[in-house]
Amino acid sequence: MTSATLPAPASEPARGAEPAPGPGPASRPVLALRGVGKTYPNGKVALRDVDLTLGEGEFVFLVGPSGAGKSTLLKLLIRDELPTAGEVIVDGRDLARVARRKVPDLRRRIGIVFQDFKLLPTRSVRENVSFALEVTGTPRGRIRPAVERALAVVGLSDQADQFPTTLSGGEQQRTAIARALVHEPRLIIADEPTGNLDPLISWEIIQLLLRINELGVTVLVGTHNAEVVTSLRRRVVALEEGRIVRDGVGGYHRDD
Amino acid sequence: MSLAAIATMVLMLLLLAGFWLLQAGLAAGVAYVEEKVEIVADLRDVPGAEAVLVVQAEALAADVATLPQVRAVRYVSKDEALARFRARLLERGQVDLTGYLDRNPLPASLEVSLVDPRDYQAVDDLLSSREEVVEDVVEVQRLIERLTSVTDVLRTGGFVVLLVVGFVVLFIIVNTIRLAVVARREEIEIMRLVGASDAFIRWPFIFEGAFVGLLGAAVALLVLGLAAAPVGDMMYGFFRVLPLELGTIARDIVLLVVGTGLGVGILGSWLSVRSYLGG
What we know:
The complex is a heterodimer.
Chain A: E1 31-39, E2 45-54, E3 59-63, H1 70-77, E4 85-90, E5 93-94, H2 103-107, E6 110-114, H3 125-134, H4 140-154, H5 169-181, E7 187-191, H6 199-214, E8 218-222, H7 226-232, E9 235-240, E10 243-249
Chain B: H1 3-32, E1 39-43, H2 50-65, E2 70-76, H3 78-91, E3 109-114, H4 121-129, E4 134-139, H5 140-183, H6 185-194, H7 198-239, H8 249-277
Helix pairs in contact in B: 1-5, 1-7, 1-8, 5-7, 5-8, 7-8
């Protein structure tokens, strides 16, 4: 399902430059939620009337108290759930219209990072990262260089042969980020990526995500981390009881 | 790898093979009884004493012929018995393995046809009394009855038993694979999130089911191979069917056992994966 707008301009790594806060007007949005609602079978209303658009190259924080609907929204984006109202459009495709067997394809275009890292404990760092490409049947020759690139970006080239159990929380999360990066997605979604990490390491991880954003990847971060959000002054989308109550550059709280 | 899954698979395959063999054997046995001969006496077969036994047999044949109940007596030599056997194999298109024998195992026999099929007792008594010549007396009519009744029971009973056992095996495999899926739940979730296709996630489990089937088949065939000799003797004693007649059966049995093992194994794991991992 293709959109009628012009294709997005090629992203160039903007080393050292201040990343632009908004998308170019001609670029196709990386994701668009229109009138999205999600009510669970047990009656709980997780989201209502959500309109959200993310353009190419944006870096956005998704904030809100527990139960506000952050996780639900992120699940909708990876089609782990379907909306009960409205449309979720990722990369020009209405997720509800995508056939079940095409869902793996979708997931390969988005990099996902979780609070609990979700690494395979029986595989090394390198193997965890290459796993994301193995499952798509990428030929072995192409996997190696892609993995080395991803490891270089996150700074884990020296620890490539270690196993998750011997890594610190920060290193594990960096492995997860490398895995999310390795198939060069347009969008990376991070659901509480610093939830299990101490403040110093949390900063490092956010810095890493910012660097990745500079390379042209759109990044959406769901987080509780008020300090980080407020001091970075990026676009903040705030959810409260399933509704978007704020969407714009600012801090974690309305008055920050 | 579940012991229960493999054990029940082996059991089912043994039963399947057993019934199959019995059916084939009985069919062969019934065919044997084409001649209108009511009593057959298998004569003793002592290597080295063949000439003496022939003389004694001919004398016995003469005696039997004098009985009023007897219509005709015929002496069938070992050579003739073997020739007949080979001819029968030939006409049924079966493999003739008799070349591998170093001596003719078939006994000579006296074939007696009666005036009245029901009036066999006197003949039976005479033949049985001559133990130095006669090895075994077979009332053919009773043999046929025995064969047909067993065949009937086999057909219905066997089918039901196999069906029930088949379901049990399927059920056990479904659960075994389910346990395997649950054990690897986290890894599967990660595979899902990273974009692995359903087929990619499923195939190791299907493979495991197939493996159970193959391993079960191998064990079953081993057991059958070991049991072949003693069972063969029993078959001849009971039904007068020589295992050699079942030459091509070996190939059929292997195909049947391996095919069924693989089929049930794959079916079971596929069902399990489909229901637990979703379509």
